[in-house]
Design a protein that fits this description.
Beta-lactamase Inhibitory Protein, Chain:B, domain 1, 23% helix, six-stranded mixed β-sheet, 29% strand, five-stranded antiparallel β-sheet, single chain, 2 domains, alpha+beta
Length: 268
């Protein structure tokens, strides 16, 4: 079985991957639209965000839980100040709330391989470095609170609910890039697509940070796969050699999709 299909199968086996689909009265097509349109979306903060797992709590009526916000900033520090550009990197639907992960979230995450230990007999040693500072989260969360079960709503309504905290009109994904973007890639970034020839910064501007990264050596060349999405939704593999995208593959329901190659002659 191809390596990418094996990875898709492993994602299917992870029960937590379905947590984002557990909205109550929110229709399935509405959830999919919200995930598709808002994950990797940029916005400018109108309120500070604290570090830590709790983040900022916002009622659908527009009131920020100021007491909780002050407490979290005092205890955990500030993850992002007002007027700073941030990105939604994950969305989780719960019974009476929607959690928006900002800049990777404020909760410490571990990879599957960080739980592996090696050794002989009864003596084993973890392979990961417990002092690895890269594992320290630098993002935050915005939790949108509803008085009852999640109602059916549109992307525009979600943006209106988040307006006291996030301004989606201030920037575009292209404006978020630190350097100039070639005109042949501008449309792809605006359409939230990864295409052959893009740099890593362009892919992040288009799709946001990947959920997983996997490295391998193919024919003596080191490649890195950035993996977006979780089954049963679309899973996208963006393959890099160095800083350049060399392949994009999509799988829907475990079926391999077409490889996107745009433009036909990417700049080198």
């Amino acid at each position: 079985m191809p390596r990418k299909l094996i990875l898709v199968a492993l994602l299917v086996c992870n029960g937590s991957s379905f947590s984002m689909l557990l909205g109550a009265d929110l229709k399935a097509q509405s959830r999919v639209a919200i995930l598709r349109e808002l994950i990797a979306e940029f916005g400018t903060l109108r309120a500070p965000l604290p570090r830590g797992a709790k983040g900022l709590r916002l009622r659908m009526s527009g009131e920020i839980d100021q007491e909780s916000l002050v407490h979290e900033i005092t205890q955990e520090g500030t993850a992002a100040a007002p007027n700073v550009l941030v990105q939604i990197t994950q969305i989780v639907f719960k019974d009476k709330e929607i959690v928006f992960e900002i800049n990777g979230g404020g909760k410490k995450k571990t990879k599957w391989y960080q739980h592996i230990e090696i050794g002989m007999g009864t003596r084993t040693t973890p392979i990961n470095n417990p002092n690895d500072s890269a594992a320290t989260p630098i993002g935050s969360t915005i939790t949108l609170l509803f008085p009852g079960k999640l109602p059916d709503m549109t992307v525009d309504e979600i943006k209106d609910y988040l307006a006291p905290v996030l301004d989606f009109e201030a920037v575009s994904p292209i404006q978020s890039l630190t350097g100039p973007i070639p005109p042949e890639f501008q449309k792809a970034v605006e359409n939230k697509e990864a295409v052959v020839g893009m740099s890593q910064d362009m892919v992040i501007a288009a799709l946001g940070p990947p959920g997983q990264k996997v490295r391998e050596t193919k024919d003596g060349v080191e490649q890195e796969d950035w993996i977006y999405g979780t089954p049963p939704m679309k899973v996208t593999f963006v393959t890099f050699e160095g800083d350049e995208v060399v392949n994009v593959q999509e799988y829907t329901g475990g079926v391999r999709g077409e490889v996107q190659q745009y433009p036909k002659q990417p700049p080198r």
